[in-house]
Amino acid sequence: MILVTGHRGYIGSLLYNNLLDRGYDVIGIDLKEGRDILHDLDSLEESDVKIVFHLAAFPSVTYSVENPSHALMNNVLGTSRLLEWSEKRGVERFIFSSSSAVYGNDGDLGSPYALHKLMSEKECKLYADLYGLDTVCLRYFNVYSEGQPFRGGYSTVISAWMESLRGSSPLVLEGDGLQTRDFVHVDDVIDANLFAMRYNDNFGGETYDIASGETINLQTIKKYIDSRYNTSWEYRPGRFGDIKHISPGSDKMKALGWKAKIPIKLGLEKCFGENSLIRKDID
Q1: Which residues, in sequence order, are bridge partners of residue 206?
Q2: How far is residue 181's CA from residue 229's CA, in Å, rounded to a whole number?
Q3: 277 pLDDT band (50/70/90 cuts)?
Q4: pLDDT digits over 181-197, tens only?
Q5: Which of 75, 96, 101, 145 could disulfide-pair with 114, CB 3.0 to 4.6 Å?
Q6: In whole angstroms, what is the distance from residue 54 CA to residue 52 CA?
Q7: Alpha helices in the chain (DSSP H)
Q8: 199 is catalytic
Q9: R_g (Cα) of the chain, nearest Å
Q10: Of the candidates 272, 91, 55, which has an alpha carbon nearest to the alpha carbon of residue 164?
Q11: What residues have CB less than 8 Å from 7, skipping those under 6 apart?
Q12: Complete DSSP assignment for 65-130
């Protein structure tokens, strides 16, 4: 049996449904259903869980800056509780959804969110070394897709720009737009998780970048949008805690046999191309 935490979230719901479609026996736990991993794991005691995909978290730099202790409780203590439960229950593999935020700005983590993810990565490694629980940490870069939901002030830049275009309102650019990012399509993120589940060897607590391998700045995406739509822009200061420049640190996943399949050009077409802005959010 497979457990997906955060199975009602953006990435978690896609992974959960993908596993169901493939015929796997899957269960989920999510705050949106009134259950969390800090208090409700005992409800799963009758389930013979062998694989854990841990996606439950408050996945926002801005939220962590505004609510650092609450974010820590859910993102760090929640992971710790789940690791302990997994080790005691004989789980065979623990796949942790981490973030490229751990790279920070020139060694400065910049946000509680980045610190929390790094702390959990280290605990995953500890559980691999000390208890023999096979853990692996997947560091997602900037995940996006045409179905990415809009979450107000906590939204990603691509989902916010799609929402503005749908509503014919000004698009907001925070900072100078020269921030560089690796945007990885959510379909590739799901594929990476499935790859990690099926991988035959022991991961031993290692971390892997999940990225497209293409780094671009926000001005490049802005120009793409401007070439297709009659747009207006509102310029604001950059968000506190945001990373200025980030790109994948290694090709370790490629060495194992996995690489992203959706280039940024195709991904932007999916998000901003003709007839692409029909609302199809994933709850």
Answers
A1: 136
A2: 23
A3: low
A4: 999 999 999 999 999 99
A5: 101
A6: 6
A7: 10-21, 61-66, 68-72, 78-89, 112-126, 157-166, 186-198, 218-226, 252-256, 264-272
A8: no
A9: 19
A10: 272
A11: 13, 15, 16, 26, 28, 29, 30, 55
A12: HHSHHHHHIIIIIHHHHHHHHHHHHT-SEEEEEEEGGGGTBTTB--SHHHHHHHHHHHHHHHIIII
Q: What pLDDT does residue 240 have?
A: 65
- Locate 56 and state its tokens: 């439950």
236-245 pLDDT tens trace: 987 766 667 7
Q: Please give the structure tokens belonging to residue 55.
A: 């996606």
Token pair for 66 = 């505004």
pLDDT tens digits, 198-235: 999 999 999 999 999 999 999 999 999 999 999 999 99
Distances from the Cα of 16 to the Cα of 54, 162, 171, angstroms = 11, 25, 32
Indicate which residue of 63, 103, 113, 144 is catalytic. 113
Cβ(2)–Cβ(51) under 8 Å?
yes
| Token duo for residue 20 | 């169901």
Q: For residue 283, what pLDDT band results from cuts at 50, 70 and 90?
A: very low
For residues 181 and 217, the answer to whether their CB atoms sit within 8 Å is: yes
How far apart are the C-alpha atoms of 37 and 25, rounded to whole Å?
Answer: 19
